[in-house]
Amino acid sequence: MDLKTDLGQAVHPPASWPGARASRPSWRSFWGEGRRLPGYSLFDFLHGYVYARWTYLYIGLGTGERQFPGWVRWIASGVARLAPQVEGEDDPALGHARGYHGKVVPLDHARQLVRVDQEIRLTELEHVIPYPVARDIVLQNPDHIVALDCPCRASRADPCLPLDVCLIVGEPFAGLVLRHHPTHARAITPATAEQILEAEHARGHVHHAFFKDAMLGRFYAICNCCPCCCGAMQSTRKGTPMLASSGYVCVVDESACLACGLCADCCPFDALAETPAAPVVDAGRCMGCGVCVSVCEGGALSLARDPDRPAPLLLEQLLTELGTAVDR
């Protein structure tokens, strides 16, 4: 089936992309990458295959919007027990979060992830991505970007719109998604990716850089999330820590506050409480997304670096500090 580009024209997948002519090359590339990754098992590959091939079913089950018969859930739970576990970690929900998680990124930081003009490899990012696995940034063909219908929104009966706001960045992920979800995906340019980020920010949605163990243990997508549809935000509210702070926290300049209440109304994490004088920030809830800052008409809100939180995901700064290993 033909795909639509960001220009609205019906075209075939770009011929230069892995998987443009057949699904086998894209999976061969994925498997080849996995074989070079220490500790990447056959289970991880199968997990990644299921996740990328049946994304909407996978996310629908994860959010509870889709249900399988009891015998299928029993088999799935048995297979899940074969997955590697962190020693001493008995809570399955925590085990899920350690391998499938997002990093909150303010708009300017998200833009950097779609502006990359070279192949890069950044590893050992524990100070930025505070999880024991899935914390590398390896971008191959970073200009290969796909806009995908958000699986979380698509699983809801009355989803937020638009749907095509999940950005799959780089290979082998973009080629896989483009090939296997032709009715839900379109190839876009980095400039169009920025436009999607800006439009979602204007809607009050949060940018998350997502990482997954089965997706080669690294960054593969930017999700633009609303609190009503996003499975990761809902899981975090329920105590499963699937999201890491941006590294910032909101601060209030009471002298500039107009006491309009807009910030408290728009906060995706319910971290602002309105008072007659000025909003009060619940630092424990604040994830430093910056949505409130953009709606504050008085300029009373700003983001401040919190040294007790993981470092921000500032890609350009990381490239300067750590250098890059360019794979050509």
Question: Keyphrases for this structure?
Answer:
Alpha-Beta Plaits; disordered N terminus; single chain; 13 helices; 14 strands; 328 residues; globular; two-stranded antiparallel ribbon
Ends distance: 31 Å
State the total count of DSSP E strands: 14
Stretches where pLDDT falls below 50 for ≥5 residues?
Answer: 1-12, 18-23
Tell me the major beta sheet: 8 strands, mixed
What letter string, H or E per element, gives the SSE order?
Answer: EEHHHHHEHEEHEHEHEEHEEHEEHEH
- Structural Rg: 20 Å
Structure annotation, total helices: 13
Overall morphology: globular
Strand content: 15-25%
**Which class do the helix and strand fractions yield?**
alpha+beta
Helix coverage percent: 25-40%
Structural domain count? 2
Mean pLDDT: 84
